[in-house]
Automatic annotation (TrEMBL):
InterPro entries: GIY-YIG_endonuc, GIY-YIG_endonuc_sf, GIY-YIG_UvrC_Cho, RuvA_2-like, UVR_dom, UVR_dom_sf, UvrABC_protein_C, UvrC. Keywords: Cytoplasm, DNA damage, DNA excision, DNA repair, Excision nuclease, SOS response. Residues 15-94 form the GIY-YIG domain. It comes from uncultured Anaerotruncus sp. It holds the Pfam family UvrC_RNaseH. This is UvrABC system protein C.
Amino acid sequence: MTIPMLAEKAGKLPLEPGVYLMKDKTGQIIYIGKAKKLKNRVSSYFHSVDKHLPKVYQMVMHVSDFDFIVAGSEFEALVLECSLIKQYSPKYNILLKDDKGYHYVKITPGPWPDLQAAKQKIDDGSTYIGPYTSSFVVTQSVELAKKVFMLPGCKKKFPQDIGKERPCLNYHIKQCCGVCTGKISCQEYNDRVQRAVDYITVGADKIVKDLEREMTRLAESMEFEKAAAIRDQLQSLRRLNERQKVVFESKVDMDAISVAKGGTAVCAVVLKFRRGRLSDKDEFLLKDDGTPVEILNEFVARYYTTRQDMPKEVLLELEIPDAALLAQLMGEKRGSKVSVLVPQRGEKRQLVQMAYDNAVTGISYRSRRSSREVAGLDELAKLLGLGEPPAYIESYDISNLGESYKVCGMVVFRDGKPYRRAYKRFKIQTVDGQDDYASMREVLTRRLTRLKNGDSDDGFATTPDLILLDGGEGHVAAIRPIVQQLGLSIPVFGMVKDSKHRTRAIALGGQEVALSSYKAAFKLVTTIQDEVHRYAISYQRKLHKNSALKSELTNIPGVGEKRAKALLTAFRSLEEISLADVQQLMDRGKLPKKAALAVYDYFNGK
């Protein structure tokens, strides 16, 4: 079916909640969605197709037909949508695939067993505890248990290596009981291993009580050395508990969720807090080009409809359309009320920020870009309402020094870094007086016209994802009409400074948005504003300096503007010119002999 035919079919759908299934020409389901009103939602795909986001446009271009299922309510539509997505895994829906398998705590066989984290269960005679879905939990638990009960972390084999070498540093700093010294019996070692296993499986509280009873018994039996060893283990457990203080006072189970975008990749992170502590992290690398709200909305729906562990609260960084429906669905699974919240301040907001920082790190690790660059671009996109983090940013600043030295600097940041080969400098040609708005209009008209005309120059050939002007709403109002007149769709915003010339806010939509709450975006914008100011003023100073040098050279008989410029190009400074002999002035400076003699005499006092 063609797009008009699909639009006609969609126009006949009911204004009822339900689920729609988009199919390609082979009949395969490529996208599944839900709608409060099927007719309105499905029809929107087949009108103004060229204005869709790239992902939606690609999907619509592959649609040959669609089916639909009417549901009794929007909530039922959500449940049905999630079930069908899980069943069919359509190409254009977000698929939550991570690299997590099952993980185990492994206790090796033999009289001197070792405690290890294992990625798989094999038939090697070992005892396996698990499975666990989180490698983070398994690895951390094994490391902490071995540290608390002072089990060896080296690669020595026992009893073969007992007494062969001097004990390592861990023994001397009391992080290892020193099996290799021969002072620990096999029975005592196995008791420590068993306590470590109990610590992992039943938790610290029960172990502490058991150890306290054992220490009292040993002390009463006059076995003071063994009691002291138990005391040391208790102290280690208590110190560990002090370091693992609750992240927040409430013991309510919570999940903090955030997404970060970097180029075409999206990283979603779920931090799980159970009984006040971080217990696990889920991380997913997705491919999607929707808005942050759309991505987060779909991710949360997919995530919780495929899991049984429901927290009491879900903390998000953005409001999502399906929050109430998801809370209802999760509440039914949990058997009690679940809240979906967007905290604005306090400890819960810090947990969401922690999730965001982890998502940024995930993107950074895979894209080989710094976390600061990824976070800056992602925050800036959210702040300005851009669909994607701006990979290619151009920034402009006007610099004036009287009537004679009016210039503009253009700097480019690509993927959050200065892209100096694309920097450009402009002399203001048509503006009388010091009129920053008119100067900015002239420069942007010249630059964007060259873009429209297909200029191949590296600094003019690329369409910027974002233009930032050094100035407020007045500068933005002067430039946006030029962008529109040239038929371009480039977002334009202003960078506002305070009285001390420091970055303060972004000018957008007739208002200013303070950057103080957006740390990564603030650092990025400050860097861009400082760089474009430095570049513009350095060009203006260079012109002023060259003009002053030319003025001095043109005082010499036989040296005019052209010869002065040629001399400065060849020798770069008056000092170099003054040190040159007549022949060098003739050869490098292209001066006739008479003019070369005059220049030489001028600097050598003859």
